Amino acid sequence: MTEEEFDANYTAALDAVLEAMAEHEEIDPQKFFGMTCILENLRFFSPVLYGAILNAKNK
């Protein structure tokens, strides 16, 4: 899998999590906002995660 494919799949997965959380009324808005911030940070570091996974796979 290329870095671009990983990024696209990773972004789609994070978006799906956010969408699922947004559709549930039971989720507290403050917790939703906090989780959104965490997921945005994970999205920002996707190239680092890709490199870590690739290095672990090559070892």
Description:
The chain is mainly alpha-helical. Helix content is 83%, strand content 0%. It has three helices and no strands. The protein has helices spanning 3-22, 29-44, 46-58.
Give the N-to-C terminal Cα separation.
Answer: 17 Å
Tally of alpha and pi helices: 3
Shape: elongated
Total beta strand runs: 0
Major pleated sheet: none
> What's the mean pLDDT score?
90
Give the SSE map.
Blueprint: H1 3-22, H2 29-44, H3 46-58
Summed up, what is this model?
The protein has 59 residues and is an all-alpha fold. It contains three helices and no strands.
Which short descriptors sum up this protein?
single chain, 59 residues, mainly alpha, 3 helices, 83% helix
